[in-house]
Fold this protein.
Amino acid sequence: MRKILALIICLLITPLVGVTKAEFQVGGYYKNFSTAFNSRLPEASMMGVVVNRLRFNLSYVLSDSLSLAFAYDFTPRVQDPLLFSQSPFAVGVAASRYRVADFESRLYPSEAEPVSSVGIYHNLDRASVQFSTDFADFSIGRDAIAWGSARIINPTDVIAPYTYDQLDTEDRVGVDAIRIRIPVGVMGEIDTGYIFGSDFDFDKSAVFLRTQLNAVETDFSILLLEFQKDLLVGLEIARGIGGAGFWLETAYVLAEPFDAEPNTTDNYLRTSIGLDYSFGGEAYTFIEYHFNGAGTRKPENFLTNLEEPAYTRGGVYLLGVHYLAPGLTYQLTPLINVSGQILFNLSDPSMWLAPQISYNVAEDIHLSVGGFISIGKRPKEDDATQLQSEFGSYPNLFFSSFSVYF
């Protein structure tokens, strides 16, 4: 398989090398995230995490139709040793399940050494070749693949999704893939590809076909995605209604449908539907409802439900069933924005409140402070594994971030 991929790349590159003068560009950013949070365990003390992230983005344009892209992250972390092995949150999503091979993510200390309070990580996040023809655009290598028109929770985005508590969502985690995009009409597209799992294992890989078109002033998209033996059928609809924007994103997942005796009880439906509106450019508001058919209404079943395929391989991270997510962003001055977002679990009930204020210190320097505040019943004092609500089980988190782009 490696020889076949190398041959494909050579065939794509060779005819175009030397056609025009090559162009090399380097950019990136430095970010610092300082966070403090209290554990969900009773009588636990505050804990802190300091994450520094240095990212280099490199592009090499050989011709109008051929380019190379690379990105590398260097991330020192200072935190409690316990946090290197487990998250304070109940559910997390694996960062790089769809990679053929990868470096050991931790540079220091080595995997054989115990971790103190300092860890240094790195990540080769992009390494791809883009090739364009009159017929289609091709991409081979490590790149970002994500779908979804919903603002908060994207049911069709299961390859490398971000959870709602993620602080840094600027760059989607790269995955190894071959991708072909074919334009259809003025605004239509056929998008297809193969996403490689570890060691080219087919059972850990994914293959997709996505079509996009515009009709009656509405964007439609249909997605077929086979991933790790599961099959996802997705639909997106987005359009304007008056001065507002409307979206509907839904996905139905069949768990291992190609098995001789598929277990239909593991199938699940996820749907997000919402509206947004901008008030004269100074204020922006939205509201989204999400249905999570993989979840459960009873808090006592939250942790046992994590063993279901939706959580182990489907990228699902919410534990309940019905959610409502309103949000607001307001521009106080040309340089200062305030925003707030709430995620309600309507069954518990519990909520996750995320206020933030951002300040553009200069053109490429940004500062923000905010928090994630959990409201709901806490776990039982005599048994922390007995959850009484979803968001009440999570810690309160407060953060500051500083970003410099170059």
The chain is about 5% helix and 50% strand.
